[in-house]
Amino acid sequence: KVVDRIKKAVKNKEKICIYGDYDVDGVASVSIMLKYFNSINYPVSFYIPDRVEEGYGLNREAVEKTANDGTELIITVDCGISSIDEVEFANSLGVDVIITDHHECQEILPDAYAIINPKQENCTYPFSELCGCGLALKLIQALTPEGVFKKSIYEYLHITAIATIADVV
């Protein structure tokens, strides 16, 4: 579902915003997503909230700003699993949200277009301890033809390794 939505956005030339956390894992996640979209020559924007002024995760003002800039799809990396109100607000603005996050899920999940989180109940992915950047790498793998990914993985591994160590997972 996520791959189809991202490919649809690219095909239809929709504006995509990568929304990350301000820590090493979040910034690394944004970085490899930007590398991926650059590799397919597709321009995307990104947003990393200010730690002091905005705090962790999606925030309403940032969602509104990206929507006003024409964003039609927000892809979160390393955040979003607890952003119920912010995702609802994005939905009301006509912005789809794909959440990729490795943090613990709460009882109620955001009403996002889709959620990638190996800690979700009933998730069958065999390893639930990936960092956010590890999830972003798996998303890139899903978006990339196998032969191309086998060659391009080296563009992402060093950044993903730093994020994994920095996030202590």
Please sum up the structure shown.
With 169 residues, this protein is of the alpha/beta class.
What do these coordinates show?
The protein has helices spanning 2-11, 24-39, 60-68, 84-92, 132-143, 146-152, 157-166, and strands spanning 15-20, 45-47, 71-77, 96-100, 114-116. With 169 residues, the chain is an alpha/beta fold. The longest helix has 16 residues, at 24-39.
Main features:
globular, five-stranded parallel beta sheet, alpha/beta, 7 helices
The unreliable regions are none
Proportion in helices: 40-55%
Could you give a short account of the major beta sheet?
A: 5 strands, parallel
Summing up helix and strand content along with how strands pair, one would put the structural category as: alpha/beta
- Shape assignment: globular
Average pLDDT level: 97
| Gyration radius from CA atoms, angstroms | 15 Å
Strand order of the largest sheet: 2-1-3-4-5
Quaternary form: single chain
Tally of alpha and pi helices: 7
End-to-end distance: 27 Å
**Record field, number of beta strands:** 5
* Pattern of helices and strands: HEHEHEHEEHHH
| % residues in beta strands | 5-15%
List the helices and strands and how they pair.
Blueprint: H1 2-11, E1 15-20, H2 24-39, E2 45-47, H3 60-68, E3 71-77, H4 84-92, E4 96-100, E5 114-116, H5 132-143, H6 146-152, H7 157-166
Parallel strand pairs: 1-2, 1-3, 3-4, 4-5
Helix pairs in contact: 2-5, 2-7, 3-4, 5-7
